[in-house]
Amino acid sequence: MPDAPLGVALIGTGFMGKCHAMAWRNVAAVFGGAHHRLEILCDTPVDKAEAFAAQFGFARASSDWQAAVSDPCVDVVSITAPNGLHRPMAEAALAAGKHVWLEKPMALTLDDARAMAALAAEHPRQVTILGYNYLRSPAFQSARGLIAAGEIGIPHAFRGVYDEDYCADPDLPWTWRMTHAAGGLGALGDLGCHLVSHMVALMGPVAELTAMTHIAIPERPSPEGPRKVENEDSAMALLRFASGAHGSFATSRVARGRKCRLQWEVHGAEGSIVFDQENMNELWVHRRGEAGFKRHLTGPDQPDFAPFCPAPGHNFGFNEQKVIEARDLLVAIAGGMNAGPDFAAGLEIERIIHAMASSQGAAVTLGGDF
Amino acid sequence: MPDAPLGVALIGTGFMGKCHAMAWRNVAAVFGGAHHRLEILCDTPVDKAEAFAAQFGFARASSDWQAAVSDPCVDVVSITAPNGLHRPMAEAALAAGKHVWLEKPMALTLDDARAMAALAAEHPRQVTILGYNYLRSPAFQSARGLIAAGEIGIPHAFRGVYDEDYCADPDLPWTWRMTHAAGGLGALGDLGCHLVSHMVALMGPVAELTAMTHIAIPERPSPEGPRKVENEDSAMALLRFASGAHGSFATSRVARGRKCRLQWEVHGAEGSIVFDQENMNELWVHRRGEAGFKRHLTGPDQPDFAPFCPAPGHNFGFNEQKVIEARDLLVAIAGGMNAGPDFAAGLEIERIIHAMASSQGAAVTLGGDF
Amino acid sequence: MPDAPLGVALIGTGFMGKCHAMAWRNVAAVFGGAHHRLEILCDTPVDKAEAFAAQFGFARASSDWQAAVSDPCVDVVSITAPNGLHRPMAEAALAAGKHVWLEKPMALTLDDARAMAALAAEHPRQVTILGYNYLRSPAFQSARGLIAAGEIGIPHAFRGVYDEDYCADPDLPWTWRMTHAAGGLGALGDLGCHLVSHMVALMGPVAELTAMTHIAIPERPSPEGPRKVENEDSAMALLRFASGAHGSFATSRVARGRKCRLQWEVHGAEGSIVFDQENMNELWVHRRGEAGFKRHLTGPDQPDFAPFCPAPGHNFGFNEQKVIEARDLLVAIAGGMNAGPDFAAGLEIERIIHAMASSQGAAVTLGGDF
Amino acid sequence: MPDAPLGVALIGTGFMGKCHAMAWRNVAAVFGGAHHRLEILCDTPVDKAEAFAAQFGFARASSDWQAAVSDPCVDVVSITAPNGLHRPMAEAALAAGKHVWLEKPMALTLDDARAMAALAAEHPRQVTILGYNYLRSPAFQSARGLIAAGEIGIPHAFRGVYDEDYCADPDLPWTWRMTHAAGGLGALGDLGCHLVSHMVALMGPVAELTAMTHIAIPERPSPEGPRKVENEDSAMALLRFASGAHGSFATSRVARGRKCRLQWEVHGAEGSIVFDQENMNELWVHRRGEAGFKRHLTGPDQPDFAPFCPAPGHNFGFNEQKVIEARDLLVAIAGGMNAGPDFAAGLEIERIIHAMASSQGAAVTLGGDF
How far apart are CA C128 and CA C111, in angstroms? Predict the structure, then answer.
């Protein structure tokens, strides 16, 4: 970590842009350490950038992301622009010697992700971290720790879903997000990659998978009449992990009534753990010999909760996950371990979701490169 | 239905035997109609049969099932003997002109099930019904009715699991139930067939599936030392239904902490329905435009609850499902519709679970015979 | 217990009448022992009695309850008639030397209950038991046992409610049940007495209480125009137990959305227990040092479940509580302990609910007679 | 609102101090508007104040709160110091012309609260607001709005509890917080006042109440040997509201397993609403004619959620309540409505909890001053 406070550039002011901004504003207050210079807020048009720079407390505004990512006052770049811009922005930032905090999914295509990971490998002193915020919640970290510590024995099965319903309405208009070229994958890219991030963190590498995808609403209205949806509304997969365990996986953007149901369970020889992001402050743990599942409310006995609140049962929030993510980034910049996923680990996630997208019911081996 | 009360023979006095006995004792009291003659209780050895005949209120006891199923005083036979005896008993009963109420799974092998269905087809005036009791609960019937009535629109996705943990303990001794020859399928035969019964009732026929099976505990202790487990501890599948919908499916007998988690959800264009047999008196329904899922407690507004209790929220029990099953059988014997599954429909369930058992990750088409 | 099977008379064929009938039909099948002679079914008019005698399997029908309760073939009388008839029927049955199984509430007035308890005391060889079925569920018995065994330490606080909504609709017509003279107490008599039965079983005797009652819907429609509701729609109380613990209590028949919410929690020095009859197969237990509450699904590890089902998580039903109640009665008739409440214990429950009804916000001491 | 950004002084750096700091850092970023000058961080000793000033981003540190509250650069004072200092600090800030954001409970004694409210009334152009953060959550605001809009009809009953277990361990050492002189009320002051804030917001003024208090653990260890606990571990009350509705109320700091169970339900003529702060992102609503309660997950359809997150089901956090509280303060300073509670409304809350503390089972009328 440089002696002077880090200079931050933030690109994008949407859902995730604001989330990054709040994280940047609070990470030092929560965890201690130097406050960062909120240097450049980048969006288009420039007056929008200026308005948000004022709102989020950035020193400058810009509509020129190339200039921003190579600005000498900037040490780290938060990229929350549309997915199609992830690659050029991340590559430019890396080339300019910056650390990169990039929203998921990493890129539109697997080739893009490969190229980005390769470039990051050439810049080993620059930190890359992807916005898999659901990895940061105290309950998830606790679950991961319990499994790693052998508390439920060797895991032999995983069951996971990530369902939302933001595309469930057939009247929802067609957008470019529903095309391969501009939107990349569908539910797999939006939601499935988060579930993969949890799955791999809990179960280790995937050896093989078979998947099916489905487009529940094949056409959607547009001003020019009905247009075809190209990417998947939902996907399902069976998996074998390198450990020998097996698993099932499903994700949907058309699951009516589900809002953030990133839900999974792991069965081990000595117990089970169940989690649902819609109730992200509850972890359900069963241990051999006990009568049922225990509801473990999030509290200071779980990782990273205490700096936010000393009292258990006082709910941790979605946005606070991002504060932990910022802290993870800063630890890595300071020379500590990168909690990740960095671009290399992010590529593994991309390989899995693209394998699911292309499986069409056939088994795909993930051991080697493809 | 014959004018005289039906004479009943019950074979077996275990978990399901007692469950049938309670159903036979209460079905007329609950639903009205003639009481049945509880004619012969059949088990081995004969003194056990005699003790249970006294307990369950049967007129006679016998250790000779062949004699029992062909006894002229018997009109209907409840078969709850071990799975390997299902075929010979059912065939003998059919040959003797009796109606048959047979516990699931239908048979050890698909060939057995085919032969049984063929024989039943030759006896169209005799009713066959399989013990898929989870189809009978008021909540399930309500769910099925809501879907059939289009309340959630056209279903496009199914997610189902049936998990228990009765084999989760590695110290559990090896038994013949864990062999193909004597036990047939593992989790698929014990649990998975129930989930298939729900799935098919909700989603219609399966067109294609891909499945993987897993043996989590490959060897178990026996007096002669460790012995190999042959049938699956768990299975997972992806499915395409004839309707075009798709689904995921998983079942396990080694899912620590799960006791009767027959849980599924159906996503439709206009809503979703979620059910879990561990809370069999709750049905969760979401409809487009509403804020979330509604908890519908079982009550007299659901099918078949009112004859048991006029008050909602007064829990329906597992055993009472079997009373409805007996009623379904009696309706069919009286010439009404057979709510099923009869042996023909049961064969379809067997085809699905055997396809899952043999898929090994390859797609299996279910449209034709195999 | 007489050598010959007990002869049973059942008075009433409504909700509880049918429930008693099902219990009488199944108690021996479930628990073993001699089957009872279902001797006389009593209701008015006689053709209704005849129809139900046939349905429930009773040998004879009668519309003359006086004759029925003194019939020499009858050993035990199930009384499920309207509350105003409880006293004369129970007194006649006791006078005729019969055992009495009486539905709650015991009587319309406290004076009636006192007289009944006094008469029962004069017939110590005849068993009296009241229909507090919610005391019988495996989960409740388990909770009671855990507390008695000191598993949560000394209880210091009780919180209980019993809410339903069967009178929540203002359009519900006025009935005689809403008068003091014919209906007795309102929510306290229908629901509150059940909650008292739980509370006393868990916490011991009540020393003092203060209560308020409320009539939410003061007038209801009748053919003669709006009529006044006399008894309480809801009641709330604060209590001090003889043990020194304290508690809160509330009951309502106008709590929209609640169907059978008999819900309570007990806080002890070493843990807490939480129960809700709407999910009567779940018991929630927290012990000091553990992270949260554990969901204990009903199973054969809880009292009286195994004879119904060997498998945990296979839901116990409301009606099955009554089978256990019948067994409790039979054990007492056979000379075993009376699990109760007998008329003496029932009088204590009546004293508490009548004290609540009359408190009007003033403290009432329950130590002595009143 | 002054043209220049407001200058903020924050007193205290504990649980609530940090919570205020995070709110001050994010309120403008979330809701827009000018950023505030974080002017003075006040705590003792001064090096602690300096460390926290750096961490929270305040310009200056001080150990002299009198100087801080009268500093000309300060416009608004956040007071999070121990309860015994609330009165002198608030009075000094008001006297110095500052706006006051004061943590609850308002003061140690009712006399103190009266004096503070009187002083605030003399400074009508200065805003006072109390830290009743649980009033701010989107789910609570939504509930309050539904009731105010008549969605559940006229409320006739309230049931509320607020339980935690932070004092449940008998080994927890004695502290000055357990004395009347230094700690004020016990559970009522820590927790009960929050429940009162909800209750009054939902049900309107309290007309009359009867309460009991309880000390479950009368002595606690101290270095000088066991010392007496003076203030209540728990309290329970019955209430009549000015509206005619009635209610029950209970709070405990010794309820094992409860962490932040601020739970209540309101029964209305047309529906019911249920809330539990431990699951603060769920609101349960039942409406007449519907089958059960609907789980409404927090989302942008509820007040004040959208500025934090555009996506439903993405959990709102405890700390974010405080950001809304800061916004409420700023709106009032800018001349808008004070969402409150201001000191006048806070005094009403104090009157209720002190009435509960002193009732000892006798009815207390709250209509007039006492």
Answer: 18
Closest CA to B194 of B349, B79, B342, B324: B349
What confidence tens digit (pLDDT) does each residue in B100-133 have? 999 999 999 999 999 999 999 999 999 999 999 9
Q: What is the spatial distance between Cα C39 and Cα C41, in angstroms, rounded to a whole number?
A: 7
- Sign of the C-alpha dihedral computed for residues B104, B107, B112 and B116 taken in this order: negative
Q: Is C119 helix (H, G, I), strand (E, B) or coil?
A: helix
- Give the alpha-carbon dihedral of A128, A133, A138, A142, to 10 degrees: -70
Burial of A82 (0-12, 13-18, 19+ CB in 10 A): middle
Residue type present at position A133: N
Q: Considering only CA atoms, which of C104, C264, C263 is closest in space to residue C193?
A: C104
Band of the pLDDT at B369, cuts 50, 70, 90? very low
Q: Are A8 and A35 in contact (CB under 8 A)?
A: no
**Intra-chain end-to-end CA distance of chain A, in Å:** 36
> Which of A293, A297, A301 is nearest residue C295 as measured by Cβ atoms?
A293
Say yes or no: A306 contacts chain D, CB-CB below 8 A: no
- Cα–Cα distance between B369 and C17 in angstroms, integer? 52
Here the tokens at position D236 are 């329970």
Query: Could you give the CA distance from residue C67 to residue D141 in angstroms, rounded to a whole number?
Result: 63
- Partners of B291 on chain D (C-beta within 8 Å) are 285, 294, 296-297, 299, 301
DSSP A259-285: SSEEEEEEEESSEEEEEEGGGTTEEEE
Side-chain half-sphere CA neighbours of D225 within 13 A: 0
| Dihedral angle sign, alpha carbons of residues B144, B146, B150, B153 | negative
Q: Is A77 exposed, middle or buried (0-12, 13-18, 19+ CB in 10 A)?
A: buried
Q: Which of B252, B210, B209 is nearest to B231 (CA)?
A: B252
The Cα of C9 is separated from the nearest Cα of chain D by a number of Å equal to: 38
Compute the nearest-CA separation of B29 from chain C (Å).
5
Look at A15 and D319 and tell me if their CB atoms are within 8 Å.
no
> How does pLDDT run across A258-308, given as a tens digit for each residue?
999 999 999 999 999 999 999 999 999 999 999 899 999 999 999 999 999
Rounded CA gap, A189 and A168, in Å?
17
**How does residue D325 score in pLDDT terms, banded at 50, 70 and 90?**
very high
Tokens of B43: 């088990």
Angle at C77 between CA C74 and CA C80, to 5 degrees: 145
pLDDT at C39: 98
Q: Are B158 and B241 in contact (CB under 8 A)?
A: yes
Task: Write down the H helix ranges in chain B.
Answer: 15-31, 46-56, 65-69, 86-95, 110-121, 138-148, 180-183, 187, 193-203, 318-333, 343-359
Would you state the structure tokens that stand for residue B176, as one six-digit string?
Answer: 């013949």
Distances (CA, A) of A165 to A133, A187, A255: 20, 10, 5
DSSP tag of C308: T
D55 in A contact zone (CB under 8 Å): yes
Residues B198, B265: contact at Cβ < 8 Å? no
- From CA D328, how far away is CA D139, in angstroms rounded? 16
B68-107 residue pLDDT tens: 999 999 999 999 999 999 999 999 999 999 999 999 999 9
The CA-to-CA distance between both ends of chain B, in Å, stands at 36
Q: How far apart are CA A295 and CA C291, in angstroms?
A: 7
The CA-based dihedral angle spanning residues A96, A98, A102, A105, taken in that order and rounded to the nearest 10 degrees: 40
CB contacts, 8 Å: D216 with chain C? 156-157, 267, 269
- ipTM value, please give it: 0.96
